[in-house]
């Protein structure tokens, strides 16, 4: 699982690297919220279009078993991006929730801050607006990335 994620964050993922996700999995970061493997592919395939470089430069992993079939994996990490010639260093906490060995929820908390949504902000209306903007961002990304189509298959 770790190798697949490092490849995804480094813009080198192949379709096989997304087999770690359950079909109904979700991915969320401060900019977008993806539902299903094809949208998750679009989110990660888009990194190469936005950044000239991207990667996880260091990380530590902690696994918490919730039950026989469920676990929470916490990846404390530092990410590096190059955007328009500028270096961007980002501290992040990746939270993976698994069921039967597959990721069902993937959260990337930038600066280790909880994601904003209707359940985490004080005003639920603000949370709904944030969620709507994340869905719109994901829809635009998904369309631009040919709806999760793998880059090697044309």
From TrEMBL:
Matches recorded under InterPro entries: NTF2-like_dom_sf (IPR032710)
The name this protein goes by in its record: Uncharacterized protein
Organism, as annotated: Sesamum angolense
């Amino acid at each position: 699982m770790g190798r697949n994620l490092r490849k995804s964050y480094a813009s080198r993922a192949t379709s096989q690297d997304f087999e770690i996700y359950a079909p109904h999995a979700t991915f969320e970061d401060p900019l977008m919220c993806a539902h299903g493997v094809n949208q998750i592919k679009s989110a990660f395939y888009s990194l190469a279009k936005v950044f000239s470089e991207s990667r996880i430069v260091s990380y530590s992993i902690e696994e918490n078993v919730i039950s026989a079939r469920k676990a929470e994996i916490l990846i404390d990490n530092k990410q590096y991006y190059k955007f328009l010639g500028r270096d961007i260093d980002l501290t992040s906490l990746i939270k993976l929730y698994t069921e039967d060995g597959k990721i069902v929820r993937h959260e990337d908390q930038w600066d280790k801050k909880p994601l904003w949504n209707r359940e985490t902000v004080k005003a639920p209306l603000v949370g709904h607006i944030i969620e709507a903007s994340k869905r719109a961002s994901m829809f635009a990304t998904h369309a631009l990335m040919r709806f999760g189509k793998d880059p090697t298959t044309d």
